[in-house]
Design goal:
Largest sheet: 3 strands, antiparallel
Oligomer: single chain
Order of helices and strands: EHEE
Structural class: alpha+beta
Distance between the termini: 38 Å
Strand order of the largest sheet: 1-2-3
Shape: globular
Radius of gyration: 11 Å
Length: about 70
């Protein structure tokens, strides 16, 4: 089981980002918690957590509108 992130732009298209692989979901989530601001600044608007090829969940990196 390998965990990784897929990076998506404003239109949902895949965009380039750091190629990282993690041994656990917790490690992947910890990494995104530390890296999301840099990713958002580079144009990534959402990410999908993958376990091998299966999408565990998607998450927006955009600020919540008030």
């Amino acid at each position: 089981m390998a965990w990784s992130w897929r990076y998506e732009g404003a239109n949902g298209e895949s965009v380039d980002g750091p190629v990282e692989s993690f041994g656990s979901q917790a490690d992947a989530e910890s990494w995104i918690g530390q890296s999301w601001r840099e990713l958002a600044t580079s144009g990534v608007t959402s990410v999908a957590l993958l376990e091998d090829d299966r999408v565990e969940y998607r998450m927006s990196l955009l600020p919540v509108a008030e």
